[in-house]
Structures are given as structure tokens and as C-alpha cells.
User: Fold ceramide glucosyltransferase from Henosepilachna vigintioctopunctata.
Amino acid sequence: MVPMIYTLYGFAIFFFIYWSAMWLLHIIAIFYGKYKLHRKLPQPALDEPYPGVSILKPLMGMDSNLAANLETFFTMSYPLYELLFCIEEEVDPAVTVVEELIKKYPKVSAKLFKGATTVGVNPKINNMHRAFEESVYELVLVSDSGIKMKEDTLLDMVCYMTDKTGLVHQMPFTCDRNGFAATLEKIYFGTAQSRIYLVADLLRVNCHTGMSTLLRKSVLKENGGLKTFGCYLAEDFFICKYFLDKGWRTTISSQPALQNSGLCDVNSFQARLTRWAKLRVAMVPLVIIFEPLSECMVIGACAAWASSVLFQWDSLAFYLIHILLWFICDWMLLTTVQNGSLPFNKFDFLVAWLFRECSGPYLFLHAIIYPNIQWRNRVFKLAWGGIAQEITPRIKC
Ligand SMILES: CCCCCCCC/C=C\CCCCCCCC(=O)N[C@@H](CO[C@@H]1OC[C@@H](O)[C@H](O)[C@H]1O)[C@H](O)/C=C/CCCCCCCCCCCCC
Ligand SMILES: O=c1ccn([C@@H]2O[C@H](COP(=O)(O)OP(=O)(O)O)[C@@H](O)[C@H]2O)c(=O)[nH]1
Assistant:
């Protein structure tokens, strides 16, 4: 009987401490977000020229926003850059989009690479390999197809590339778009993900998502270049680990990444989150315990039970107050990340937030139960540690 009581109290104390730590994360993320995000750019030194940047754009297929998103790369205010578009298949609707833009902006240095080189399992790396090898400049920006740039986004990223910094990435966020799925995406990236991302950046923990990343080519080349990471599906995590292991600093820039894919529906978004969760579990197995425990509904329930064991507090009242405070903190963080008015009202926020918070733990469970990973038209299997293997046959899109 006594060991059981000790175990019970042990769990209760653990949950209560974890719950308290989550509030600390909330507070740190809000203050650090206010400090780090949307800062005014420092004036660049007049006697130092801007470093050139080679921008790799891996493309596959078309969506309704592709042309508009790609166009923002031609209209950036940055003096020296080249655009390297990489398209895996010779026949892809993205080819026409890119060719038309290259014709429209003849003054911008741009090249189209058709056809991937198989250097590993990761199709994004295979797609970019040739362009990376032929890129001209020391700084390379890897930028996914759905990213939209502001005029000064590249300058903002370059400003963070100090002497000790090897990698600058944008924290994932979204453009303002209409509809429930867009609201859901904005809420997820601006709350649950930003919270961890900001704290990880402050503590210099690897939490790099490679949708928009500026890196030093010479450092990657010391270890064979991009192709070395082709055996992983989560190349972004291992690239960042490589820079950190070599003693380089990594940081987020002040502008969050504006994801603006034309494909925006709840099913695709949830499939994407589930795919990412599978990657995280394979790379950092401890997230199996810590990630569900960091969800509002789960840790709230655990802490409500713990508070009734430890202090005989009313569990239901505790749970409801917990949810309300979490909701308020999330609103504060989201408005900080957005840095302007949101494209939805507080009621829309409430509905989509509740949906996200209730579906989050379910999606995570789903990711653990079905470990195979579908990415576009391919299916992969991951071993612990992150090495990937493609499972044939491919899916016809
Ligand atoms: C007491 C509190 C403890 C808190 C513990 C928190 C536990 C973790 C909880 C949540 C994790 C959220 C992580 C958010 C970012 C991850 C997004 C992601 O999964 N990205 C992956 C996929 O990216 C795409 O991959 C394919 C590529 O081609 C695309 O271009 C990419 O966009 C990416 O691969 C993974 C990146 C990093 C994963 C790190 C996971 C560990 C996080 C631990 C953070 C701990 C923070 C410190 C708290 C104290
Ligand atoms: O087989 C693939 C899958 C993806 N990509 C590119 O990799 C980037 C990220 O792809 P996606 O948006 O599907 O990844 P997510 O952000 O959902 O992880 C995009 O620029 C895609 O064009 C690619 O070149 N080949």
C-alpha cells in the first residue's frame, strides 16, 4: 500500500512541476517573442558590401499561389542574389510558371534546373543538389515553394548572419488567408509551435524547420555539402545539429516565415503535422512523452488531478481556469507573432483554438500508431535516429 501511495504522490508532484514549467515557457515565449520578432533592421555598415546570396527553390507541382509567391523573390530589395529554381521532373506545370517569371524579370539573375540527381533518399535534397553545387555565392538560402517574401526579408536574415553564426532560419508562420483551415494553421504556428520554437531559440536547442534557411556553404562543404544529409528525411534537423556540433551559432531572424501555399485545407494540414510528428519521434524519441504532455488539454487534466491529490483542490474548477489562462496566453503570443491585426475575430479564434487543442493529442497518437511517412507521392520508413528508406511503389498524384 505504501509504495502505491508514494507512486501516486510521485506522479502528482511530477505533473505539477511539469505544469508549472509550461507556464514558465508561456511567459518566456511571450517576452522573448516581443523582444526578438519584428525588430527594426540595424543600418548596414556603409563600408562593407552586402554578401551575395544563392537562393535555392525546390519546386514540385503547382498550386494557385505559386506564381505570386515566386514573384516576391524577383522583387526583393537586396543588391546581390541569384535565384536557382529546381524542378524534379522535366514535365511539371511549375516549369512554365518559372519560365514566365524569368522572362518578366530579365534583370534578376535566375536559372532553372530540371531533373533531380539521386544522392540519397530525401527528394528535396536530390532536387536541390545540382543547384547547390553550381551556386555562386557563399551564403545559400533554402526556401520552400510555399514561402512568400517581403521586400526586406532577405536583408533581415542576412543581418543575423554574424561572424559566429552559421545558420539563420525563419520561424514558421503563415500569411493571412481566408477560411477555417487558414485560421487553424495560423493559430497552430503562432501558438503551440511558436512557444517551443522561441524558447528553443533562446536556449539554443535545435528546433530548426528548414522551410526558409540561410546557411554558410563553406561550412556544409567541409562535410560533403547538402548531399551528406540526403539519407535523412528531416535534413533540416541534422543540418542544424551539424552546425551546432561544429561550434557555430544558429538563430531565428526577426521576420517569421510567411507560408502561403494555395493548398490550404484541414486534411492536408493535419497530414502535414502528423508527418512532422513522426519525424520528431524518430529523431528525438523523448518527445513521445514530452510532446503530448505539453498540450493544454493533457497537462491541464494531469495537473488538475495532481492538485486534487496534493492540495485537495477542486479538479473541474482547476481545469477550466487552466484552459482559460492558456487561451489568454496563446492569444497574447499569437498577436505578438502576427505583429498587426489578425484576419479573424476572437470568436473564430476560440473555435479554431479549441479544435486545434483537442485534435493535437489525437494527431500525435495517430502518428505513433502509423509510423510510415507519406511525403507528396512517396512513402518512407524511418529508423530510430532518422535514417530514411523509401518504400515502393510510389503513389500516383
Ligand atoms: C517542461 C517543458 C518541456 C517541453 C518539452 C517540449 C517537447 C516538444 C514539444 C513540441 C515540439 C514542437 C516542435 C516544433 C517545431 C517542429 C516542427 C517540425 O517538426 N519540423 C520538422 C519537419 O520540417 C520539414 O521537414 C521536411 C523539410 O524538407 C521541410 O522543409 C521542413 O519544413 C523538422 O524536421 C524538425 C525539426 C526540429 C525537431 C526538434 C524536436 C525537438 C524539440 C524540442 C524542443 C525543446 C524546447 C526546449 C524546452 C525547454
Ligand atoms: O518530393 C519532393 C517533396 C518536396 N519537395 C520540395 O520540398 C519543399 C518542402 O515540401 P513540402 O512543402 O511538401 O514539405 P513540408 O513543409 O510540408 O514538410 C518544397 O519546396 C517542395 O517543393 C521536393 O522538391 N520534392
